[in-house]
Every structure is written in C-alpha cells, then in structure tokens.
C-alpha cells in the first residue's frame, strides 16, 4: 500500500512514514483526508480577534528585521511587522534563507501561517512570506490537521498530484451523490474556487466516509446477542406506577415502553434516555430497574457525584422499599467496614439495586446476578468507567441517562445499535441566559442580590475550589469571601465543594434546602442531584472553562418548577470565546446544544477513550442521521472483501457502543 503513495510527487519514505501516523497509507486515503478549514489569501485576517492556532493572512509593514544568526545547525531570522490597523506581529523563521531578501525594514510583506499566542503576544513561526504587491489573486488554500508532522504546502501538493494522476473515491451509495458526484467533491474540496464550495465538497466526502464506517462496522461486528432473558410480564411494574403521586407524561410512557421492549428482544439493550433536567428521566430509570429486579436480577446505577448518588438512593428507597426492593448506596466516602458489608451483600445477591459513584467499578464489588447497568449523566464519565461497569453485567444491557449527550454518544447512535429515547421538556423558555463580560460584573452581582432579597435563591459557580498561582481564574474560595463581604447583613452565603467532608456538605445543603442560605457558592458539584425549586438565578464564573454540556446541566438547576429564571455566563475572554458561549443564549434544547458542541469541539476519538478532539469525519448530527439512512440502503455483502479489509485496517471491531 505504501508503495502506491511513493508514486505521488513529494512523498518519499520519510514523508510516507509521517503520513502513516495520520492514518494515510494509500493515495485514496490521502485524498479522503479532508481539510479542517480554508483560508482566502486575498482576504486579510483581523489580528485583533485572531486566536492561538488560527490560520491568518496579514499584510505587514516591516518595522524591525534582525540579521540572520545561527543556533547550532539552525539559522534563525526574526522580524516584526505592523498591520494597517496597528496590530503588531512577531515573525520567526528557521532555515528559510530566501526570507531575509523579502523581509527587511520598510518592506510591504504578505504573510500567512498558524498564529501562536504566548502571554498575549501574537507570533507566526515559519510563515509563508511574499512581496505584498505581487500577491493578489492567490485564491483559496485548504488547511489540514497535520499534527506538525508535515508542512501544509507539502501536503497540498501531494494531494494535488494524486488528483491529477486520476486517483478518486468510489461511492457506496449512488443516492448520496445527487447534488455532487464524489469525484467532483474530491477535486473541489482540495482545490476550491471559493470557501463555500470547498466546505460543501468536504462535507460530501465526509458523508461518504461515515457511510463506509457504518456499513463496514455492521459487517464485522453486528449486534450483541442477549445472554440473560426477562421472563416477567411488564405489567408487574403497574403497582409502582399507581403508587406515584403524579401521572407519567406521554413521552415518559413512550420511553419506558421502548426500554422494556428492548429488554424483551434477543439483542442486548443499549439505550440512551435523553431529557432535559427535570423532565423525569429518573422515574423511568427506576421503573426499568424495578422490572429487572422482578425478573430476578440485580441492577447497578452509577452517578458521577456523591450528591447525585445519594439523591437517587433516597428516591429509589422511598418509592421501592414498600415493594420489598433492597436498595444500597456505595460511595468512596463510606468507612471501609461499611463498604465491605455492602459488597458482601451484593455478592450474595441480598441487594437488588446498588447505587453509587466510581466505587461501583472497584475490583471489590462483584454481583451475583447483574443484568442491567444504568449510567446517569454520562457526559461526566469517561469511556473506561462506563465500560468497566458494563463489564460486570452478564448481558450488557445498558441504559444511559443524559440531559445533553456528549458528541461521542451522538456519533455512536449513528454507528451502532444505540437507541435514543427522548423525554420532552416540562418547561420551555422560562430561563433567560446572558453572556456577561467584565464591565457587567457589578450589575450581575446586584441582580443576584435583588432576586434573593425578593425571597429567591441563587447559585454562583466557579471552575475550581482554590486559586492556583499563575492561573487566572475565579475560585470558589475567593468568590465565597467576596460575596460574603458584599452581601453582609443582607444575605447568607454558603460554600460547597467536593473536598468538604460529607457532614459539612450536608449541613450546607440542608441550609440551602431550608432557605436559610440564600446564595450558595460552589464548584460543579451542584451540576446534578440538587433540586431546589426556589432557586431561580445563577452566575457561572469563567464560563469559558466549561463545556456546553456542563453549562446546560448547571443551568438546569434553576427555574425547575417553571418560574422565571436567569443564568449569567461570566467571562473575561475574547470575542471568539463569547461566540461559543452565545450558543447557550440561543439554544435551550439539550440535543440542539449537543449538535452545536459537536460542531465546535468534535465528537471525540470514537475508536478510543478521548472525549474531545477531531478524530474521524465531522458532520452535523442531522447529516450523520442522513448517513445512517443511506447506509441502510447498502448491502454489506456486496462489498464484503473491500469493507472487511477497511474495517480491520481501522480496527472498527474495537468500537465501544457503551
């Protein structure tokens, strides 16, 4: 395969080896490697808002140029230029002898490359430099994610040569090519006339890539067969439903029916229950767990925090104890003796439902007859934790609960057998979200005070517990001291974080539940598991340090009974970060936020354990669903040899659908 690559201009043994690290071993894989972005060399970038890692184009007046000097085997050349708007840019080249002839004091130079910012100082290292007046009409250049292994220009020329030599991609599904044949998409994506055309062609190639992944995965993996069977009629859960002080909503009933139907099939259940905070996911999970227990099995429910695990334990115990179900709580904070007693009861089959945190996946916990693993708020767990819990189950029946599915999970709903069940929101649009910058901090804190003086309660969230030297960010400790002083004599402020002792945390929570504490300053420990209907206002400090999924969860703590709520996302970052946060002001639906998050930060490396990044083709969720629809029309057996080799090369059999 590599020998074919060596036929491409500019690719020798060394470059071929580097391409291999990018997963490129054939000319076809080379042209299937789509750009991450495009840059118009005739359009200057706004250096004042450009961020670290951006590709920029700048026309500069050179105000300083040093003489080239040698540093060991390297020749170093430094300069500094000023753009028309006054922005200054440091320029550094290594072993670029031609540059000093172009870049000299008083020269007008067009440069483009990847921006590096350290301590706010913008710099380009080894940018392409050209005499400004000669460079109009250079057109659109694709930008590739090359991990520093290969230069952009080398990669571009290799792709161009591969296309000129006639290498192209074959479409599995002709219907997908209605708007743009794949061969045309290949040329346009890599050699575009406009940015818009390039992006459309890139999306077409990525659509084909996802289709191929889906079909190949199905060919080599298939579905997991059930090993444990549920023999009871689903009507056994009716007494519990009748005992509830409220009626299930239509969407709750539909979701429950879908889960129970999955448990009755021959294939293992792999379902994701999606519903915004307060929509009623917990009761659906409880009824599912009760059904499994009535069928003679054990159930494990893993939550990310002790607060949420304890909340579930109380809910499950209150509802299910009258029906003879034995529920236990296992967390890392319990005394060793109590942990051993709980583990012993679980191993003996004396515990029906075990609820806990990461402690559930410890080696000391062994179930006698576990059939169902329930994982709550799964965006807080890594792949390893989820897999470890599922491994304790004989049949691998899995139910995950999420208000905002992480992008990786959205990807897996397309690739495999993850069934997505939605519960509709009870309250829509009752929380107003606003991005606040430094100038608006005082007004924000005044708004919190005014709301609380009217009898409401507030959350103030910080990204860390304490200040760390050298890192500029708000800490819970510092905010607690600041607000205690600011609100002294008016409001009672409490502090809550994960490093506090269990008794201390409970005392603060009890004060907040009772209304004695008006403002609670915390870390994301309050993200899930706290239900205070009287809380209607929240301020998240350094909101730029949180993912959109986490922000959506945090926002779900306020306005839980339908009252008007206010969520402030405070940031001192630049305009680009404010644009990301603005998603939260525009979207209230968890799935929509997950899609925007997918577009911003990627779906994660779905072959591995990384939860973010740009591994694999990136498509909007709706296009991924379109890819699944098209993949359903492909007969894997008709392409068996090609797809089997492809699946083995990409190790698709290692994908975890959990």
TrEMBL record:
<keyword id="KW-0238">DNA-binding</keyword>
<dbReference type="GO" id="GO:0003678">
    <property type="term" value="F:DNA helicase activity"/>
</dbReference>
<keyword id="KW-0227">DNA damage</keyword>
<protein>
    <submittedName>
        <fullName>ATP-dependent DNA helicase RecG</fullName>
    </submittedName>
</protein>
<dbReference type="InterPro" id="IPR033454">
    <property type="entry name" value="RecG_wedge"/>
</dbReference>
<dbReference type="InterPro" id="IPR027417">
    <property type="entry name" value="P-loop_NTPase"/>
</dbReference>
<dbReference type="GO" id="GO:0006281">
    <property type="term" value="P:DNA repair"/>
</dbReference>
<keyword id="KW-0547">Nucleotide-binding</keyword>
<keyword id="KW-0347">Helicase</keyword>
<dbReference type="InterPro" id="IPR047112">
    <property type="entry name" value="RecG/Mfd"/>
</dbReference>
<dbReference type="Pfam" id="PF00271">
    <property type="entry name" value="Helicase_C"/>
</dbReference>
<dbReference type="InterPro" id="IPR001650">
    <property type="entry name" value="Helicase_C-like"/>
</dbReference>
<dbReference type="GO" id="GO:0005524">
    <property type="term" value="F:ATP binding"/>
</dbReference>
<dbReference type="InterPro" id="IPR014001">
    <property type="entry name" value="Helicase_ATP-bd"/>
</dbReference>
<dbReference type="GO" id="GO:0003677">
    <property type="term" value="F:DNA binding"/>
</dbReference>
<dbReference type="Pfam" id="PF17191">
    <property type="entry name" value="RecG_wedge"/>
</dbReference>
<dbReference type="InterPro" id="IPR011545">
    <property type="entry name" value="DEAD/DEAH_box_helicase_dom"/>
</dbReference>
<keyword id="KW-0234">DNA repair</keyword>
<keyword id="KW-0378">Hydrolase</keyword>
<feature type="domain" description="Helicase C-terminal">
    <location>
        <begin position="444"/>
        <end position="599"/>
    </location>
</feature>
<keyword id="KW-0067">ATP-binding</keyword>
<dbReference type="GO" id="GO:0016787">
    <property type="term" value="F:hydrolase activity"/>
</dbReference>
<dbReference type="Pfam" id="PF00270">
    <property type="entry name" value="DEAD"/>
</dbReference>
<feature type="domain" description="Helicase ATP-binding">
    <location>
        <begin position="262"/>
        <end position="423"/>
    </location>
</feature>
<dbReference type="InterPro" id="IPR012340">
    <property type="entry name" value="NA-bd_OB-fold"/>
</dbReference>
């Amino acid at each position: 395969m590599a020998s074919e690559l060596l036929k491409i201009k500019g690719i020798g043994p060394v470059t071929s080896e580097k391409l291999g690290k990018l997963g490129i071993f054939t000319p076809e894989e080379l042209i299937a490697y789509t750009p991450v972005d495009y840059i118009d060399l005739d359009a200057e970038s706004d250096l004042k808002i450009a961020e670290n890692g951006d590709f920029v184009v700048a026309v500069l007046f050179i105000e300083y140029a040093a003489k080239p000097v040698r540093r060991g085997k390297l020749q170093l050349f430094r300069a500094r230029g000023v753009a028309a708007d006054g922005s200054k840019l440091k320029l550094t080249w290594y072993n670029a002898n031609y540059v000093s002839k172009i870049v000299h004091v008083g020269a007008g130079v067009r440069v483009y490359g990847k921006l590096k910012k350290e301590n706010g100082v913008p710099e380009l290292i080894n940018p392409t430099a050209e005499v400004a007046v000669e460079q109009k009409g250079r057109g659109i250049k694709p930008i590739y994610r090359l991990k520093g292994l290969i230069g952009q220009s080398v990669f571009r020329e290799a792709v161009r040569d591969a296309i000129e030599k006639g290498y192209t991609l074959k479409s599995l599904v002709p219907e997908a090519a209605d708007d743009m044949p794949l061969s045309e998409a290949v040329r346009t994506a890599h050699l575009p006339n406009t940015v818009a055309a390039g992006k459309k062609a890139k999306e077409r190639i990525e659509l084909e890539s996802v289709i191929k992944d889906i079909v190949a995965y199905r060919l080599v993996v298939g579905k997991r067969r059930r090993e444990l069977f549920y023999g009871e009629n689903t009507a056994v859960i009716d007494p519990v439903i009748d005992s509830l002080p409220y009626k299930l909503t239509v969407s709750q009933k539909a979701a429950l029916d879908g889960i129970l139907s999955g448990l009755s099939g021959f294939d293992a259940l792999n379902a994701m229950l999606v519903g915004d905070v307060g929509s009623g996911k917990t009761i659906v999970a409880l009824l599912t767990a009760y059904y499994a227990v009535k069928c003679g099995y054990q159930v494990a429910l893993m939550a990310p925090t002790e607060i949420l695990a304890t909340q579930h334990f109380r809910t499950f115990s209150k509802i299910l104890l009258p029906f003879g179900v034995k529920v236990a709580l296992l967390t890392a904070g319990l005394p060793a003796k109590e942990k051993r007693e709980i583990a012993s009861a679980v191993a003996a089959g004396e515990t029906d439902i075990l609820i806990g945190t990461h402690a559930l996946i410890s080696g000391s916990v062994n179930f006698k007859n576990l059939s169902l693993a329930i994982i709550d708020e799964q965006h807080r767990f890594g792949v390893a934790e989820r897999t470890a819990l599922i491994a304790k189950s004989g049949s691998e029946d899995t139910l995950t609960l999420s208000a905002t599915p992480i992008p990786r999970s959205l990807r897996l709903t397309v690739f495999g057998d993850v069934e997505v069940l939605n519960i509709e929101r009870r309250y829509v649009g009752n929380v107003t979200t606003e991005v606040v910058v430094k100038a608006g901090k005082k007004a924000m804190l005044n708004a919190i005070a005014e709301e609380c003086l009217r009898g409401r309660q507030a959350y103030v969230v910080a990204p860390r517990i304490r200040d760390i030297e050298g890192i500029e960010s708000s800490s819970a400790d510092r905010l607690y001291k600041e607000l205690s002083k600011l609100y002294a004599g008016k409001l009672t402020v409490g502090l809550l974080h994960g490093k506090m002792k269990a008794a201390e945390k409970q005392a603060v929570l009890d004060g907040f539940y009772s209304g004695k504490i008006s403002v609670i300053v915390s870390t994301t420990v309050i993200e899930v598991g706290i239900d205070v209907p009287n809380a209607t206002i929240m301020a998240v400090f350094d909101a730029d340090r949180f993912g959109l999924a986490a922000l959506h969860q945090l926002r779900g703590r306020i306005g839980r009974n339908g009252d008007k709520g206010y969520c402030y996302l405070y940031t001192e970052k630049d305009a680009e970060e404010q644009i990301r946060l603005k998603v939260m002001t525009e979207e209230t639906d968890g799935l929509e936020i997950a899609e925007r998050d997918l577009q911003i930060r990627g779906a994660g490396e779905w072959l591995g354990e990384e939860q973010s990044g740009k591994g694999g083709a990136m498509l909007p969720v709706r296009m991924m669903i379109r890819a699944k629809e098209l993949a359903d029309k492909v007969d894997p057996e008709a392409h068996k040899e090609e797809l089997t080799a492809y699946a083995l090369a990409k190790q698709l059999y290692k994908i975890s659908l959990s």
